[in-house]
Amino acid sequence: MNGINLCDHRAKEWDMKQIKEASKMIPVMAQADVLVVGSGPGGLAAALAACREGMDTMLVERFGCFGGNITQASVESIAWYRHAGTVESEGIGFEFEVRAKEMGASRKEPQSQSEALDTEMFKYVADMLIEEAGIKPVLHCLAVEAVMEGGAIRGIITESKSGRQAILAKRVIDATGDADIACRAGAPYQIAQKQDLLGVTVTFSCSGVHKAQFLEYVKTHPASLKNWAEETSGKEAHLLSPYLAEPFRKAKEAGEIPDDVEIAGTWSSLTEQGDATYLNLVYMLGFDATNVRDLTRAEMEGRKQAMWAIAAMKKYTPGFENAKLRTFGSSLGIRESRKIIGRCTITRHDVMNQARFDDAIGIFPEFLDGYGIVIIPTTGRYFQVPYGIMVPQKVDNLLVAGRCVAGDQISHAATRQMMCCAVTGQGAGVAAAVSIKQNSTCSKVDIKQVQKSLQKQGVRIS
Ligand SMILES: Cc1cc2nc3c(=O)[nH]c(=O)nc-3n(C[C@H](O)[C@H](O)[C@H](O)COP(=O)(O)OP(=O)(O)OC[C@H]3O[C@@H](n4cnc5c(N)ncnc54)[C@H](O)[C@@H]3O)c2cc1C
């Protein structure tokens, strides 16, 4: 008999709290030197970096496209912090932006010296980057378990339309955003209380916008970062922001948006055809992205709020009178969930005070956005990103990249940024490769060699 046989439990009541899954042999789908799980800016950078070091590299993604929040939640503003004085991380994150521009997959970002990614086209850009590098791609494949050998990871178990399969690897990089693999492998992690986590967002886009009229409205109703940030370093106050609040305030006053719902946020690029491609206006607190019921509630509540937002813009925003919903982000946008307890941790003090580390694998400009704080790197200040925040405790040969690296609450306002996720991704990919070449492990890898290889790949370390 296939399936799980309830008769084995000697009980058939429907109020059973647990059922037993029998162990079984499952096929090994593939073996690789480096296996990267999750393909957001962290995972994509990790896979490219490992592959460019000559590793047989596999990239596994649960959805049907690579890119993570970029392609699934349409987050297009990859470098909205960049101003004349900004010192950049360089490396693969910068390459995403440049390559997208070269392939006609970007537009000018409205508030900075950067490109906004065309997030639909970026699906294709990511495919091209993966194909050219020779990474082995697997889409529609959810990683559900870690395969262990002693204190080290040796692969993952996946679920897909092909059934339950294993992938074995010498090194695994967890770039799932939620530290799914580290959690399954038994590495210690932390997750804040629901009410303290950054909000989740259903992003959406509109067509039928009269661009010139809307931009005229923006000119007469200019917003700056001080309109929405509770704490800045002072120099941000005068910087213009594509922030929109007035139409939603009016809709609330008219009883068209419930009192307990807060809608406000940013628009981003506008096409000549009248598309507002990325509307980040719904921000919902109190949802845990590792809880499937919370994810369901947030998707549905977010779509409801997006429809209220569109109705308010149509009524109260010049240029939006004939606007229509074009797309919802294909998945809920998550900003924060599990974070590993690493070999070391990065803190508020580090990211705000140009921290320097012996095990630096890159730098990131002093850019913070989260928990009411916005600091924009207009002055060339930056901090180094240490290797230790990607190294979990208790599990060897596993590295973590992207938003789930170790750190305190406020440092997350910097390390969660997509360019910083690419920094940790590239660092993890190269460190995994160097550890294999040296016949070492992720916990003992020669960091000087990692730094040399990263510099060869174009990463700025100091
Ligand atoms: C609405 C919103 C607006 C934002 N705005 C900005 C901004 O303007 N600028 C900026 O820099 N950052 C912004 N961020 C933050 C940024 O998008 C994220 O912090 C960043 O994308 C995290 O990158 P990551 O690679 O760690 O994870 P993600 O981008 O979340 O990618 C994780 C990937 O792993 C996959 N995955 C997850 N679990 C599994 C599994 N078990 N098996 C297989 N695959 C799995 C996912 O499908 C996904 O593709 C925003 C975030 C949101 C939600």
Quick tags:
alpha+beta; 12 helices; FAD/NAD(P)-binding domain; 5-stranded antiparallel sheet; globular; binds flavin-adenine dinucleotide
Can you walk through the features of this model?
The chain has 462 residues and is α+β, with helices and mostly antiparallel strands. The chain is 28% helix and 21% strand. The protein contains twelve helices and 20 strands. A hairpin with a 2-residue loop joins strand 17 (368-370) and strand 18. Residues 37-43, 60-63, 68-69, 72-73, 75, 77-78, 80, 142-143, 175-178, 180, 201, 203, 280, 333-335, 402-403, 416-419, 421 line the site of flavin-adenine dinucleotide. The site of flavin-adenine dinucleotide has 39 residues, from helix 1, helix 2, strand 6 and helix 11.
Given the structure, what is the number of helices? Answer: 12
- The CATH homology group name of the largest domain: FAD/NAD(P)-binding domain
Question: In CATH terms, what is the architecture of the largest domain?
Answer: 3-Layer(bba) Sandwich
| Count of distinct structural domains | 2
Mean pLDDT, as a whole number?
A: 96
Q: Please bin the fraction of helical residues.
A: 25-40%
Given helix and strand content, the structural type is alpha+beta
Question: How much strand content do the residues show?
Answer: 15-25%
Q: Which stretches are poorly predicted, pLDDT < 50 over at least 5 residues?
A: none
**CA(first)-CA(last) distance:** 61 Å
How many DSSP E strands? 20
Query: What is the top-level CATH class of the largest domain?
Result: Alpha Beta
